[in-house]
Design brief:
Blueprint lengths: L16 H20 L3 E2 L5 E3 H7 L5 H6 L2 E3 L5 E4 L4 H10 L9 E10 L11 E10 L4 H17 L5 E7 L3 H17 L6 H5 L14 H8 L10 H17 L4 E2 L11 E9 L7 E7 L3 H4 L7 E7 H8 L11 E5 L3 H13 L4 E3 L6 H11 L3 E6 L2 E5 L6 E3 L2 H11 L3
Parallel strand pairs: 1-5, 7-8, 12-13, 12-14
Antiparallel strand pairs: 2-4, 3-4, 5-6, 6-11, 7-9, 9-10, 10-11, 14-15, 15-16
Helix pairs in contact: 1-5, 5-9
The protein binds adenosine monophosphate.
Adenosine monophosphate binds next to β6, β10, β11 and α11.
Length: about 425
């Protein structure tokens, strides 16, 4: 009896070579763009102490309430696979004393994240984000720079039908006074709300703006808006962010109902969506988090950041997996495997992309395989020694290995 097969867990997927090529392009484009703007790459561990997220992301959020992969290690410590990147970056900032570096500190990452969500197209349980964080600046130019960079990246990668929504959440004091009023509004109309929203009035009333339920939407249409309550300083900060975006030519819409699923945001909040995506239309988003570093035990440090989902960028750009890199030389052989092997290694040593026959095909089969691989040149080792073959005409002429390399180097663009 054969053994049953084992599949990848639900909501995860394998990155096969064709897809890896596309993802490498996203990573490379992000690295070029962000490094040119002064960002250094950071990679934090795939798992962290659970407390980092319960304290950093917020107890009332969907992420902490129901989406984390949490487990105990052999020392009875509670650990969690990272569901997002900002809290880990802030943890690393504090742990490595980066507040002593000249401000602002600019960091970016390209990492995998884990959320136990219901899988569907564009929503996975392991997914990748490219993200960027700036620590140590209150300046609205930092907010505008972050948004412009996210926009440029999405644009360069070909994301289609982009929409940028923008809001400000003001300071924590403004937000908590507003939240109290919002709760009153929701309680007054609680019989018109969906049961889920009703159950969360106390825990996270802002999320009611995200609901698709028609009754809840009617109630929210008449709800007070945080944007109308900003303090003069917060309003001035927001106005400057808007002016800088306008000057940069980045179109945006103000959306007073914008809320995001993380508790740490203050002031600027933004989200990119794509008309080319279905139900999961969010491509990326972020915001300012001026209290987070202090909340994690560090010195009071303002911060702002964003993250964009790699899978959704590729979906939105309509990019199809493309074959991996080509082959400059395929070495076929009839007689001397060792000479074929050495020829392949020599070619590689000289910077050429070379492969040889590895499965014992007939010469005819080897030539067919070279053709399938799209090899630009084919060398054949037979009774007459090393031959260079023209794949088009099928003619062969003897060469020595130095001639072969020189010829290929002249023909193959470096
Ligand atoms: P968030 O941290 O929830 O604001 O997510 C930022 C971006 O990450 C989103 O706009 C999506 O592009 C992507 N994202 C979030 N959750 C998932 C998921 N479960 N599967 C795939 N991409 C996701």
């Amino acid at each position: 009896m054969s053994s049953p097969t084992i599949r990848a867990p639900r909501g995860t997927y394998d990155v096969l070579p064709d897809l890896a090529v596309l993802r490498a392009e996203v990573e490379q484009t992000a690295a070029e763009l962000l490094e040119a703007a002064g960002y250094g790459r950071i990679e934090t561990p795939a798992f962290e102490s659970t407390e980092l997220f319960s304290r950093g992301v917020g107890q009332s959020t969907d992420i902490v309430q129901k989406e984390m992969y949490t487990f105990e290690d052999s020392g009875h410590r509670s650990l969690t696979l990272r569901p997002e990147g900002t809290a880990p970056v802030c943890r690393a900032y504090v742990e490595h004393g980066m507040h002593k570096l000249p401000a602002p500190v600019k960091l970016y990452y390209f990492s995998n994240f884990f959320r136990s969500e219901k899988p569907q197209e564009g929503r996975y349980r392991q997914f990748w984000q490219v993200g960027a964080e700036v620590l140590g600046s209150h300046d609205p130019a930092t907010d505008a720079e972050s948004i412009v960079l996210a926009h440029t990246l999405l644009d360069r990668l070909g994301a289609r039908g982009l929409r940028l929504r923008l809001a400000s959440l003001g300071s924590p004091a403004t937000r908590s006074a507003y939240t109290a009023d919002l709760k009153t509004h929701l309680r007054d109309k609680s019989d018109e709300l969906s049961p889920q929203v009703r159950a969360r009035i106390d825990l996270n009333p802002l999320r009611a703006f995200d609901s698709d339920d028609p009754g809840t939407r009617r109630v929210m249409a008449g709800a007070p808006r945080l944007l109308d309550r900003l303090s003069p300083e917060d309003a001035e900060h927001f106005d400057e962010v808007k002016a800088l975006l306008a000057a940069a030519g980045v179109p945006y819409e103000i959306d007073s109902t914008l809320v995001r699923g993380l508790d740490y945001y203050t002031r600027t909040l933004f989200e990119f969506s794509s008309d080319a995506l279905g139900a999961q239309s969010g491509v990326g988003g972020g915001g300012r988090y001026d209290g987070l570093v202090a909340q994690l035990g560090g010195p009071p440090t303002p911060g702002i950041g964003w993250a964009a989902g790699v899978e959704r960028i590729l979906l939105s750009a309509g990019r199809q997996p493309s074959p991996p890199v080509g082959v400059d030389l395929f070495v076929a052989y009839e007689t001397d495997r060792r000479q074929a092997f050495q020829t392949m290694l020599d070619a590689r040593h000289h910077g050429l992309r070379a492969q040889m026959e590895l499965t014992g095909r007939s010469l005819k089969g080897q030539l067919k395989h070279a053709d399938r691989l799209g090899a630009r040149f084919v060398a054949v080792v037979d009774d007459d020694g090393l031959q260079l073959r023209d794949p088009r005409s099928g003619t062969q002429e003897p060469v020595d290995s130095a001639q072969l390399i020189a010829l290929l180097q002249a023909e193959v663009p470096s």
